[in-house]
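Batch manifest, entry 17 of 40.
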Amino acid sequence: MLSNIKYHFTSLHWCFRVLTVLTFSYSSLTFGQTREQWVTESGTKVIFVQSVNLPMVDIVVDFSAGAAFDPPGKEGLARLTMRMLDKGTPENDEHAIAARLAATGSQMGGNFDLDRSGVSLRSLSYEETLATSVRLFTEVLSQPNFPQSVVDREKEALITSIRERNTRPASVASRALSEALFGQHPYRSSGAGTETTIQSLTVDDLVYFHERFYRASNASITIVGNLTLKSAESIARQLSENLPVGASERESLEVTTPVSSQQEIVIPHDTEQAHIRIGMVGIQRGDPDHLPLVLGNQILGGGGMTSILYDELREKRGMTYGVGSYFNPLRDPGPFVISFQTKQEQAWEALDITTEILKNFIDNGPNAKQVDQAKRYFIGAFALNVDSNGELLNYYSNINFYDLPLNYIDSFSDRVTAVTVDQIKDAIKRRMSLDKAVSVIVGPTKLLDEPNG
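Output type: structure tokens
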């Protein structure tokens, strides 16, 4: 269940699809059906989208309680708290919770990233089944009791995961890049914590984190499925009023301070290939330059085998099997990252070539043909991707959590079409600069002997 949380820190798939690949086809999925937005009496934001195609309801409750909210010295607390939600309540232990879910055919899951902890429920929409599932969901969210024996077990599992992650050069490179880009800002976190911080976490820490962050005014509820507005209002009210009360304001982070100069970081690691990252601080959700930049990135490295980076590094030079780039817009400006691996003996050459490609793209931007292809991809992909309640839930939960307009989807294709080549070039020149870029190479120790190192 929640031990199998989906983590999204540098995932190109999630960053690109959620709230960027959206088009006109949305209207055919929801035309003539209810779509409402409101705030509960307890202060929780709600979006409901009626979808009558299947006898199913999907619900997600998102909290501003992601990895970036870990207290200093308690890194990993947000992640552990979320993992523990379905491990016991005063009424049911973890086995009883699993049995009750199985009895109704319901599923609980979770999504976790720097900004948020999101807990989801999928249930059949039949009245008795849905009522039973929502009661259990409410109990799990509002009354976790964090049994000591289970906390100890989960801590050991997290420590094992940390040890394994530290053996992976890709993880080492990503962590080093985040720490260099974000300095003391909470986005430097991987969310995993360290062996020391995880070992130090107590039941009292979990109780504190839950009471502070899993409260009604710090939550957003998104509901998609085959039910009436009245039923959706009742479910939202039940979930919201049972959460801790606490402060009336949503939790927020300090302002990001981008790096102001180039950095080059070399980390020796026992690996056959060199893992390379190039990054800079990018944009936040709702940024006016969002569309021009993600269209530009689609051309640079987001388009897979059709991108400039793939063509130059893979097709022309055979330096890598794959290369990609992405923006990860968050509540505060998140990272822009280029990522690939290559043979150790050509690591510095590959880094130099990639840097030159990036410099040329910043200086000159894409051409009209490339922009047209990127637009057609954005506008055509949505119909293939959004084919379920779960997909609609993903889109609307992002709209809800990040305070985007409710009609964000409806207007998306028009806004994509309206972006010009000059707007993309201008946004790239203003928002991207090698003077603020960080390069990371993780590879064999002898890389340190290269002239660049």
